Amino acid sequence: MESPAAPTVPHPQIPARPEVPITTAAPAKRERRWSVAALCIVLAVLCALGAAAAVTSASNRSRVLAVARDVPAGQPLTEADLTVAEVSTDAALTPMSASDKQSVLGKRPAVDLRKGGLLTSSQLTAGSGLGDNLQQVGVQVKRGQAPAGTLTPGDKVLAVTTPTSDDQGAKKGGADDAQPSTISGTVVDVSRPDASGTVVVNLAVATTDGPLLATRAAMGRIALVREPRSH
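The structure assignment produced for this chain is given below.
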């Protein structure tokens, strides 16, 4: 006798899985495109700001006078001594305008001018720029009584009193180690040498020394020694 067949047990139905969309690289690409676009915008803004700053800086620059080479105090300014420079406008700087160049030529600086510096009106004086508040004495100097061709306005010198024949006779009779009498002065200008090589050097000296120097110079008893120039 056959046993009855076992009843079929129905299998539980498994719920269908929801469809998951397949991801693609498209969103990432779109994000990168937005990043690149934003970066381009930032760069464009920065470039615009830089250009605006450059234009503003250029518009704030002015042409002024500058020193083309070293010029000692008291020496008249020439065309070769000056040049034109462009600098940014600054309230702390007061250089002379390039348009004033012709009016400056021939004037004398009251101080030494150094190459590359800006020229200001305070550096110039209406007078010689040397010894205008001191006494000035003209000293006639023969060849051999001053350094040949080296004296220029602004040089510091010692006016040395040379001995007379009586002084030399007294020295022969006994030793005399006394230092020669000197007067400190500043060269204002130097004349052209005459046929014999004699020049006239105008010296600015203290008011207490002017009369004495003039007396000795009139007697032809002055020789000049140039002091070391400062650097």
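Interim note for the steering committee: The longest strand covers residues 182-190. The mean pLDDT is 78.
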